[in-house]
Amino acid sequence: MTMGDPAGIGPELALKAWLRRDEIGSAFFVVADRRLLGRLARRLGLDVPIIAAEPAGASEIFQYALPVVPLSQDVDAEPGEPQVKFAAATIESIERAVGYARSGQASAIVTNPIAKHVLYQAGFAYPGHTEFLGELARSSGQAPRPVMMLWSPELCVIPVTVHIPLAEAPRALTRQAIVETARVAARDLAERFKIERPRFAVAGLNPHAGEGGAIGREEIEIISPAIAQLRAEGFNVVGPMPGDTMFHAAARKTYDAAIVMYHDQGLIPLKTLAFDEGVNVTLGLPFVRTSPDHGVAFDIAGKGRANPSSLMAALRLAARLAAA
Question: Do 156 and 245 sit in the same domain of this protein?
Answer without folding.
Answer: yes
